[in-house]
Each structure stands twice: as structure tokens, then as C-alpha cells.
Amino acid sequence: MVRYSPLGRLSSTNHTSRTTMIVVFAVLAILSIASLAALRSSDFANRLHLFSSSPPPPAEVKDPRCPATGPNNHFEQQYGHELLQRSIAHEGTNKRLREKIAKAQRGESLRMAVVGGSVSAGHTLNDWRNIYFYRFLDWWNEQFPEGHHTIFQGAVPATDSGYYAYCFDKHIPKDVDIVFVEFSLNDASTLPCELNKQGSIVQAKMMESLVRNLLRLPRKPAVIMTSVFSYNVNEYLDGQESHLPISNYYDLPHISMKNALYDHLNRHPDDLRFKLYNDGHHLSDWGHQLLSDLISHYVERQMCAMSDQVQPPLLDNYSYNESIPKFDMFTHRWEQDKFRELEPYCHTFADQSYKPKVMEGWNFWNWQNEKFYIVADKPGSNITFEVQANQGVVYLYLLRSADYNLGNAWCWIGDDKEKGRELQGYWDKWYSIGVMTPVAEGLSQGQHLLHCELMNKTSNPNGGTNFRILAVASG
Q1: What is the Cα–Cα distance from 64 to 308, expressed in whole angstroms?
Q2: Is residue 53 part of a domain?
Q3: List of residues 6+ apart from 48 with CB closer than 8 A
Q4: Fewer Cβ close by (within 10 Å): the C or N end of the chain?
Q5: Same domain, 390 and 257
């Protein structure tokens, strides 16, 4: 008779239990490995999603003032998430812009303005209503139909930020709420570039003066910087590189078509060049629509952010409650006690009522009701302007070009002709543009006389002696 000892039975059961446990642990291990792999795969997929061309999932809309975001957004559908993100060169806190949006949401009317060059003047367009800022105004009116919103066209072809730093109030009213600034084509980079082979800090200083004076206007306007780019310029660098530090310092939004499309245009020129430009330099109707949409999309982002705002932290209240920085970007700390705001004085010949104090051999000239000069071509012709100094600087805004037989002039302050400066109208670059040219620095505060005389000497290889002045500026 076979007897099963309790120990034997227990041993058999123990063996079976161990086998079962091993199988269970193996299954659990396989499931854990599979789960971990799935999690890693999901994480990897999520990281890939950040760099994919697919738009992000739609965000919850918590307020009817916030337009739909994600793939349901009109701009996301048309241009894709990545292009729109790239176009925001600097986002900023947008305190001023959000204040203006809030005014519009309350049904108040806003006044806008534009300063810029030939792109903002609508060159090569058949219909001025297709310029980007008029299209933006149409979009703005759709978002805020209760107010009566207007925009002032203050752009002048072939001008740069230097001209507007002193003469902006000759072209736009002072009681504006939003100002668009577009000078990336006409301003040079601070780095060596096609427009200025040595690079120049002057352009950044001029743009800062313009921005600072705009921000000081009575209604504390929001300033929106924009950058376009030209296919005819043979390198990447242009005015945007002078402007971005100002956007950073003054906390300004900066919308850049160059950021969004420059590389694509290099890779696929035939795909985009004839769609974006009419002449390789000035935007087409589609180009203006794109720039308008980039700005509109950016404003939408602020509307959505406003609908989900939380109470700002203490540091936010402490650090960012001032309207503009106390000093400009170029004032050394040890010289801050000497800082004075620029109070610009501008005599532009676009104001046809202005007359110089003395004028012998010089004549007014209006080119197609678009560019206004005072012109001389006979050596010895002289002219005198009354100028007012605040920071002690005086400039002439000159036409510079390889065309028009341009020559040289000698300019000086007061009676000290020998300490004057020789100014050149001719240069060998392919484009013609106004350039803010320094005549004097370090002047005492008050009124001075600026004299200029057309020279026999000329830098023009063809012997040209024509000279064209668009404006006289001081501050």
C-alpha cells in the first residue's frame, strides 16, 4: 500500500506553487516590459510630435473672446503650426497690446498707424487696399465690430528708421493706439552686410530713437515690429538684426516673415519666389496677405492668453509696471545722470510749407507726389537751415544712389566752416535710398545755423554734382 506522506504531498504542492509563481512573474515581467516599451514609444511619439508638421491638439477654449486654436484655427489650417511659430521672432509680455485689445473688447474705437518704406507704401500693388495693414484692419474690424477703428498710412518709399526717428510726427498723428514699424529692407544690419559692408551701430540707435519716441506718445501705443526680406539681396543679414535687440529691450512683439520663409525660399526658389514677390523685392498681393495673417495670428494668441490670465506674481508687478526703460540702450551706467530724452526736430520737404533760412542755387522738387527734395547741381550753391539741438546732434537726410549724377556737399555749423564735414550723395550700391547722415555732435542746447555748399569735388566717377536733401533733423 502506497502511503503519501504529508511531507511528500507538501513537497509536491510546493513545487507546483513555485512553478506557478515563476510563470506569473514571467508574465508580469513581460507585461511590464511591454508597458514600459509602450510608454517609451508614446513618449518618443510625443517628442516627435513637437517637431512634426502636424498642428498641436486643440486647446480648450475657456472664453468666447478666444478664437479656436489648434487644427481648427483658420491660420493653422492655412499655414501650419511651425510656420506661424517661426514667424514670432520676439513675443514679449504684450502688456500694451493687451491693453489695446481690452479697449476694443469694450467697444472702444482704436486709432492705428504705420511707418515704413516702399513695402508699406504698397509698391507694385494694383490696389492699395491689399497692403498688409489694411487687410489687418479688415480682420480687426471682424473681431471688434462695435468700435470705429482707423489706420493712418505713414509710409514713405526709400526711407529708413533714421528719418522717422526725427520725422515720424510729420506722417502720423500723435494720438494713436497701435503703430506698425516696417524697416527691415531699408535699414542695415549691425553686422557687416550688403547694405553696409562694415556694419553699423547707427541703424540700431536710430531705430531705438524711433521706438522710444513712439512709446512716449500720449496714448502709450503698442508698437508692433515687422520684418520682411528681399530675394534681390544676396545674403541673410538685413535690418532685422539691428531691430531685434530693440524688441528685446523694449519688450516689443516682432513678427518676421524672414524667420518663417527664408530657408524655404533658398531650398525651393521656384516654389515661392514668384508667389511672394512681384519683382523679387516688393511683396505681391499674396505676400501682403501672408504678412497680415502672421500679424493677425499673433494678435489672436494674445486674445487667447488674456482669456486665461492668472494673477501676476509679485515680481511681475514690481519689475514691469513702468511704461518704458528709464534710460536708452546706449547710455552707460556712469553717465545716466546726463541722460536726456531725445526731443526730435524735423524739417522735411514733404511739408511743402517749410523754407530754409537762406537758399541760393537750390530748388524744391516733387517726384510723383511721393518724394520731396531740395536739389542743387551747380557747385557753389549754398543753403542755410535753422536747427534746434537737445542732445546736441544734427543730421541731413540725403538721397544716396549710383544714379542721378549725385555729387558732394560741404556742411558746417555756425561760422566754423573749416570744421565742417564732406557729405557724399553718390555710392556704388544697386539701390537708391535716403540715409540719415551726421553733420555735427556735441552741440550746446539751443538754436544753431547749419550751412551747406555744393562742392566742385565729387566722388562720382562720372563727375556728377547733383545733390538731393529730403530732410534736416536735429535733437
Answers
A1: 11
A2: no
A3: none
A4: N
A5: no
Rounded Cα gap, residues 239 and 359, in angstroms? 35
Taking residues 134-154, report their average pLDDT.
97
Alpha-carbon distance 328 to 211, whole Å? 10
Q: What is the CA radius of gyration of the chain?
A: 31
From CA 84, how far away is CA 186, in angstroms rounded? 24
Q: Sign of the CA dihedral 219, 158, 187, 460?
A: negative
Residue that terminates a domain, selected from 286, 309, 332? 309
| Helix and strand totals (H; E) in the chain | 12, 17
SS3 content of the chain, % helix, strand, coil (to 5): 35, 20, 40
* pLDDT per position as a tens digit, 288-307: 999 999 999 999 999 988 87
Q: Is residue 51 part of a domain?
A: no
Total domain count, the chain: 2
Flag whether pLDDT at 308 surpasses 90. no
Range of the domain at 260: 70-309
Are 303 and 366 contained in the same domain? no
C-alpha 113/C-alpha 376 separation (Å) is: 34
The string of DSSP letters for 234-285 reads SSS-STHHHHHHHHHHHT--EEEHHHHHHHHHHH-HHHHHHHHBSSSSSB-H
Tell me: the pLDDT tens digits for 407-417? 999 999 999 89
Q: What is residue 123's three-state secondary structure? A: coil
